[in-house]
Design goal:
Helix content: over 70%
Number of strands: 0
Radius of gyration: 19 Å
Structural class: mainly alpha
Shape: globular
Number of helices: 7
Length: about 140
């Protein structure tokens, strides 16, 4: 069994995560005031690409770029760039509260989109889990 201090530390980390996650839309709105949203989109994409940039060895990077995964990486880069761009443009045009609400209901539209595009079967369990995520977070 884990030590009580580990449990308290874990709880504190979880609580801090909730505070930071809740403040994210407010911080985005505060820092974006008067700036181009695409600047933040580009920064988010570059930060997200850092693990790939830091792959050691020239051969490993060459294989990543010219290998069979290149198409998938290209699709990921385009879709995440588009998603970041749309998010920051939308956050710039609406309130921090609306941005937070849209982030909060993400499990619901992910469930709907996965059933439409990926043909996943919607079960009571999946719907209940999504509702609990939205209500509990």
């Amino acid at each position: 069994m884990k030590d009580v201090s580990h449990a308290k530390f874990g709880f504190s980390c979880g609580l801090l995560n909730m505070v930071v996650y809740g403040l994210t839309p407010v911080a985005i709105k505060f820092f974006m005031s008067g700036h181009d949203p695409l600047l933040f989109s580009g920064a988010a994409s570059i930060i997200g690409a850092l693990p790939l940039i830091m792959i050691p060895g020239r051969e490993a990077r060459k294989e990543l770029v010219s290998g069979p995964l290149f198409g998938l990486l290209f699709l990921i880069a385009i879709s995440s760039g588009l998603a970041n761009g749309l998010f920051f443009v939308g956050a710039n045009l609406t309130t921090a509260m609306n941005t937070g609400l849209l982030e909060q209901i993400e499990p619901i539209y992910s469930l709907i989109l996965s059933s439409i595009f990926l043909k996943e079967v919607l079960t009571r369990g999946k719907i209940s889990a999504s509702a609990i995520m939205v209500l509990g977070a």
